[in-house]
Amino acid sequence: MSETTTATGTIESKSWEQSEYADAGPGAPKLATATGFDVYRGDLEGDADWQGLMFTDPDGSGTFDSLQRTRGTLGGRTGSFVLRMTGTFTATGDSHADWSVVPGSGTGELAGLSGTGGYASSAGNTTYTLTYRCP
Q1: Quick check: 122 and 3 in contact, CB under 8 A?
Q2: N or C terminus: which one in the chain shows less Cβ crowding within 10 Å?
């Protein structure tokens, strides 16, 4: 059996593109797709491409769901894996997400990876945790 380990560090957003769809008119909540590229530092060193669905209330707060392919080194092992994430954001831009490793998505030395965690972002600073097992 593998040991459970918790990774921590920071995330830097390098790009973000968003496009609205299914317009319901003025004052209605907005639906959008978004894509981005992030860089991870800390116990996970690497980068990630993600795509998500966004729901934004007229007050600017909302929710999102996304998938992210993460590539890099985690616990001395190199490979990639996919995170499924669900989160919320405020009108001021602060956000929080919970995530889990998609079963079977690990590649290279990260094959068989499992885990959960998330991130919190406030005032432009984003920190993450990932509690994981890797055989």
Answers
A1: no
A2: N
